[in-house]
Amino acid sequence: MADTLEFNEIYQEVKGSMNDGRLRLSRQGVIFKNSKTGKVDNIQASELAEGVWRRVALGHGLKLLTKNGHVYKYDGFRESEFDKLSDFFKAHYCLELAEKDLCVKGWNWGTVRFGGQLLSFDIGEQPVFEIPLSNVSQCTTGKNEVTLEFHQNDDAEVSLMEVRFYVPPTQEDGVDPVEAFAQNVLSKADVIQATGDAICIFRELQCLTPRGRYDIRIYPTFLHLHGKTFDYKIPYTTVLRLFLLPHKDQRQMFFVISLDPPIKQGQTRYHFLILLFSKDEDISLTLNMNEEEVEKRFEGRLTKNMSGSLYEMVSRVMKALVNRKITVPGNFQGHSGAQCITCSYKASSGLLYPLERGFIYVHKPPVHIRFDEISFVNFARGTTTTRSFDFEIETKQGTQYTFSSIEREEYGKLFDFVNAKKLNIKNRGLKEGMKQSYDEYADSDEDQHDAYLERMKEEGKIREENANDSSDGSGEETDESFNPGEEDDDVAEEFDSNASASSSSGDGDSDRDDKKPAKKAKIVKDRKPRKKQPESKKGKDPNAPKRPMSAYMLWLNASREKIKSDHPGISITDLSKKAGELWKAMSKEKKEEWDRKAEDARRDYEKAMKEYSKADSHRGERSKKKKKKQEKLVKGKGDKKGTTSKSSSSKSPAKGMSDSFKSKEFVSSDESSSAESKKEDSEDEGGASPAPSSEDSASGSD
């Protein structure tokens, strides 16, 4: 039999709502992960007391009861899965999966049984309906009557508001059945009652959602927001996550409280409570408890008297009471150095924070998107201007979020972050175009964003070059750019691999038609060296010694197999986390042993590098000698060509232009030339300027 069972599209009943997710049964217990909120319910196998299989509206359902009275309901199973589940419960949990059908007679007279946190209305031995007492928001009594009011579910189209039970009087003296019924309900119900004094009070805090200034009163089980117009009571059980986010101006802090279910005001739902603090605001706080109670309840996380920044005190108190971690931005750093990106969402400007496991946008409206619910992301061109771009996120449920007006300088940082988190990028070719040459993707019709990316990269290079040119302080290059003659000479010297000093005299008198393609060649060929530079940097000598490992990496390589054997089936990420914990907990003496090994490896590397550099210098000297020999051979051939050109030029008339002269090599190669073309060339040369002297040509080449 398999050690685990997994079911997709299972629905969990929580406070009247059916939340879809994934259910996994293993030897250790039962795990359900909510697809919407990401919340995980973990039931240990040792806590399971009873399992019930029954027919429900969505096929078949599984009800699990724990030893401490909690009830968990999961619907969406097929009838054929009963045998598989029953065998699994027998083998791993030592429980009999009982089959119990609901009573469908339609009677409204029966018996109420209280079992743990569940109220069951039964007719005979069959239940008619069950009410989790945690759904009850209020319980009131009347003459022979008890009324239960329920928390409202925002996702459901129709919600149950209240249920009334008629309790007949009994003959027993001294016991009121109505009060006994109400006390059983209130002992397990999620009823907010402000009994006693608040632990502490924060006065006049600025709240962005819901907007206004509120006094926050901290009670042992709930949070009370008291404003001028509205009051809100928030049970700590509804707090899903806590975030502490620095503002882009580095002078303010956001403290975000994620709520499920949300607080309500009329038809408005607030899924997030966002507080804004100034970093300069300090506070001295005294808890309304004695020191023994503080130590017993919070176990050192809080003290009776505390002082510090206001945002630190609020976050510290909330963390201790809610018992949840506070999420802060990870390693992401934008173009401006901040840990967030300025953008717009639904026509409102705000800040997008890339976190370690998701994105959060503040503040209007606040949005939190986890990585595990993202289907893909997309980088799109800005609709109004080319100086910005849009970042689109689509979830697996089909919901799309578009964050627009992001500065294009943030593109590289955001793309690298998304790529590092291994999110599915819809226009993946956009990043590949950055690594490869421009010519391969410039004319691509499949991805319109490649050209946009390359233009941004090209403009960035131009700005860097302009900055380098201005730092040199020389104005000669700007003067040369306005001199057409010298510009053509630069093209010949930089890009003509066969150009020499003696041939510069023949390049100065080209036609206008010949100049045009030369300028185009300059633009095209000016990019090629830039593209070849990163390729040359990437190349490494395979014979070069490898860098030495750190002490931690040496220990990890030696201990990897042992960690795998101790934790079978561990993933790569969990293995690295576990290794980090083991290394951190290792004693100083053991670490020193690996430090010595790392030091020995470093010495060996330095010794090998010295030998490698000596051998490399010998190879460099041999290549230099070979290059000098080649230069001498080329120079000798150039001198011979120079003597032949002098002898032929002495025979030509003094009025002859430099372009009218053609060497023997040129004449022999141009076999298709005719007498008529020579005649046309001589007529065109008649109006040309005289050739420069040898002194001028020498100065131009210099």
UniProtKB/TrEMBL annotation:
Name a single GO cellular component. Answer: FACT complex
Under the heading InterPro entries, the entry gives: HMG_box_dom, HMG_box_dom_sf, PH-like_dom_sf, RTT106/SPT16-like_middle_dom, RTT106/SSRP1_HistChap/FACT, SSRP1-like_PH1, SSRP1/POB3, SSRP1/POB3_N
Question: Which portions of the chain have biased composition (kind: Basic and acidic residues)?
Answer: 532-544, 609-620, 631-642
**Which segments show compositional bias classed as Acidic residues?**
474-496
Alphabetized Pfam families for the sequence:
HMG_box, PH1_SSRP1-like, POB3_N, Rttp106-like_middle, SSrecog, SSRP1_C
Q: Which GO terms describe its molecular function?
A: DNA binding; histone binding; nucleosome binding; RNA binding
Name where it mostly resides: nucleus
Biased segments, Basic residues type: 517-531, 621-630
- Family membership, please give it: Belongs to the SSRP1 family.
Summarizing the function annotation, the protein's role is: Component of the FACT complex, a general chromatin factor that acts to reorganize nucleosomes. The FACT complex is involved in multiple processes that require DNA as a template such as mRNA elongation, DNA replication and DNA repair. During transcription elongation the FACT complex acts as a histone chaperone that both destabilizes and restores nucleosomal structure.
Record-linked PANTHER family: FACT COMPLEX SUBUNIT SSRP1
What is this protein's record name? FACT complex subunit SSRP1
Q: Which gene encodes it?
A: Ssrp1
